[in-house]
Amino acid sequence: MSTMTIIMPDTTAQRLNDEAERVGLPVDELIVQISEEYFGRKERFERTAEYLLSKNADLYRRLAQ
Predict the structure, then answer these.
(1) What is the DSSP letter of 64?
(2) What's the burial of 52, exposed, middle or buried (CB within 10 Å: 0-12/13-18/19+)?
(3) pLDDT band at 58; cut points 50, 70, 90
(4) Are 27 and 15 in contact (CB under 8 A)?
(5) What is the C-alpha separation between 29 and 12, in angstroms, rounded?
(6) Mean pLDDT, to the nearest integer, of 30-38?
(7) Residue 27: count of CB within 10 angstroms of its CB
(8) DSSP structure string for 11-55
(9) The pTM is what?
(10) Using CA atoms, how far apart are residues 16 and 30, in angstroms rounded to an integer?
C-alpha cells in the first residue's frame, strides 16, 4: 500500500470529510472507492468505444469516401 499527500482546496477537503462521515467511512477509504469507481467507468467507456469503432469500421470508411 502507498501513502500520498494530496493538496486540494479547503472546500473540497470539507466535502470529502462530510461525505465520509455521512457514509461512515474514513476519508482515505472513501477516496479509494471514488478512485476505483472512476477507473472502472473509464475502462468500461474505453471498451465500449473500442467495440463500437471496430463494429462500425466499415460504415465509417464508407462515410469518409
Answers:
(1) H
(2) exposed
(3) confident
(4) no
(5) 16
(6) 97
(7) 13
(8) HHHHHHHHHHHHHT--HHHHHHHHHHHHHHHHHHHHHHHHHHHHH
(9) 0.74
(10) 8
pLDDT at residue 29 tops 90: yes
Q: Which amino acid is residue 51, in one-letter code?
A: Y
> Can you tell me the distance from the alpha carbon of 32 to that of 63, in angstroms, rounded to the nearest whole number?
43
Q: What does the alpha-carbon distance between residue 32 and residue 39 come to, in Å, rounded to a whole number?
A: 11
7 vs 23, 48, 53, CA distance in Å? 23, 33, 38
Res 59 pLDDT > 90: no
Q: Is the dihedral of CA 20, 44, 42, 4 positive or negative?
A: positive
- In the numeric block, the cell 465500449 is attached to 48
C-alpha cell read off for 25:
467511512
How big is the chain, counted in residues? Answer: 65
